[in-house]
Design brief:
Number of strands: 2
Shape: elongated
Strand order of the largest sheet: 1-2
Order of helices and strands: HEEHHHHH
Radius of gyration: 22 Å
Length: 158
């Protein structure tokens, strides 16, 4: 396998990680470390934090680049005949479009992860609020809160 292909692979991986970090900045979660958010005595929600965003962004970018990038039709392992027929050309490179696409895919992949975690937090907040006595003040706070803040408000309801 061509060494330059691995270099491009790692550049795309890093670009996707940058996209994941950008997503972490764009959300209310910011640069939180991974942690378990306790809902009640029996239930916790894993919040992957910025490290999860970076990891998912990097993986999403590499998958996208592998599927649709300029090297997608080339064999990386196989019989000698297959590798000889579809050998990597001498002139391969990473285009600007592939690089910025990796960042965009990293943001999108990390956004998916953030959305899933936020959905779980909001579901837990709704369940806690529904099991509590009605409170106009708490309902207004939840309406304007981030998902993690909504859970905290719901946990304080009696």
């Amino acid at each position: 396998m061509n060494v330059s292909m691995w270099i491009m692979f790692f550049i795309v991986l890093i670009a996707g990680g940058v996209g994941g970090a950008v997503n972490a900045l764009m959300t209310d979660n910011g640069f939180l470390r991974p942690k378990m958010e306790k809902v009640d005595d029996k239930t916790s929600i894993f919040r992957p934090g910025y490290l999860g965003n970076v990891l998912i962004g990097a993986i999403a970018a590499v998958i996208s680049w592998g599927l649709y990038g300029p090297l997608s039709p080339y064999y990386i392992i196989g019989t000698e005949q297959a590798l000889a027929v579809h050998a990597l050309p001498e002139a391969v490179g990473l285009t600007l479009a592939s690089l910025v696409g990796a960042i965009l895919i990293g943001i999108g992949g990390a956004r998916w992860l953030t959305g899933e975690v936020d959905k779980n937090l909001l579901r837990a907040a709704a369940a806690r609020a529904a099991a509590s006595k009605p409170s106009m003040g708490a309902s207004q706070q939840i309406a304007m809160a981030t998902p993690s803040q909504a859970l905290e408000v719901a946990k304080m309801m009696k």
